[in-house]
Write a structure and sequence with these properties.
- It is an enzyme of class 2 (transferase).
- The protein is of the alpha+beta class and 234 residues long.
- The chain is built from ten helices and four strands.
- Strand 1, helix 1 and strand 2 form a beta-alpha-beta unit.
- Helix 4 packs parallel to helix 6.
- The radius of gyration is 18 Å and the shape is globular.
Length: 234
């Protein structure tokens, strides 16, 4: 793999969709890296030292220098290794700004409500989160039509940062569908996103960076049981 002259280490957890974003770019560009698995219940000194503000994964260590936040790392890798493999960040300033808007929308309007649905303490809180997720999914269906212009991905003929941001969540979204029976991507309401998801998951970089579905589902069931037990005791 490329990047042999650089020491690239990733502090991550196998189940983190945010770490999957970074791993996807590593594999898409063919960059060699060392994955360091973290235990978030017993965080390492390296993690606490590398990300003292948020104390979360992923953290990239590039020749010993730490960098935090998944999409910040994605853009850093794309720029730093611009000559290696395909780029995921649009070269055009306007297209780049639009893509960053949709990345922010995904994290704030889709991912944040997902946490509300599966970690909420009341039925009302969970229902509101689910409502927001369906609204965001409908918006992303339109966004895909506009961004892709009839091509396979948000980035056009090849994946871009919007594909990376949303695609990394597909494993958890599908695990959630299995647990709750609620399908966000529907053939009647969101046919474009449904087809896009299949294309994204078929990519070699996605297969290499996404957690195994059976293992993730088992972990999701365990986390859901822990959350339910914690809420019931309050």
């Amino acid at each position: 793999m490329a990047g042999g002259g650089d020491e690239l280490k990733l502090l991550a957890t196998w189940f983190s969709p945010f770490a999957s974003r970074v791993k996807f770019v590593f594999h898409l560009k063919g960059l060699s890296y060392e994955n360091i698995e973290e235990d978030l219940k017993n965080k390492s000194e390296l993690l606490l030292k590398s990300n003292p503000v948020i104390k979360k994964v992923p953290v990239l260590l590039h020749n010993g220098k730490p960098l935090c936040e998944s999409m910040v790392i994605v853009e850093y890798l794309d720029e730093t290794f611009a000559a290696v493999g395909p780029s995921v960040v649009p070269a055009d300033p306007y297209e780049r700004a639009v893509a960053r808007f949709w990345v922010s929308y995904i994290d704030n309007k889709l991912v944040a409500p997902w946490f509300q649905v599966f970690r909420g303490k009341t039925k009302e809180e969970k229902a509101e989160g689910l409502k927001q997720m369906f609204e965001a999914t409908a918006v992303m269906e339109v966004a895909f039509r506009e961004c892709s212009k009839g091509r396979p991905f948000f980035g056009g003929d090849a994946v871009g940062i919007v594909d990376v941001a949303l695609g990394s969540q597909l494993g958890w979204l599908r695990a959630s569908e299995t647990l709750s029976g609620i399908k966000l991507f529907d053939p009647a309401k969101t046919p474009l996103l449904l087809a896009w998801a299949e294309r994204f998951l078929a990519l070699d970089a996605a297969k290499a960076s996404m957690p195994e579905s059976g293992r993730l589902l088992a972990y999701a069931k365990m986390r859901q049981a822990e959350t339910d037990a914690a809420n019931a005791s309050k």
